[in-house]
User: Fold DUF2922 domain-containing protein from Vagococcus zengguangii.
Amino acid sequence: MKKLRMNFISANDKKTTFTYTNCHQELSADQVQAAMDSISQLKLISANGVLQYETPESANYIETIVTDIL
Assistant:
């Protein structure tokens, strides 16, 4: 299963990520951009008074392959 990783710039110009593990696998760029815009506009998540998801930067799907050896 793929994870959706959305990359943002925080209010203090540091890179932050928001990873969604149970996402739809066929989201369009426009849908993801709209979601990222909504997240940044909510201004809900901060650490030590610094907004973490201030400016949307990029997004990608991450797929991890696990190979059992035992």
About this structure: The chain has one helix and five strands.
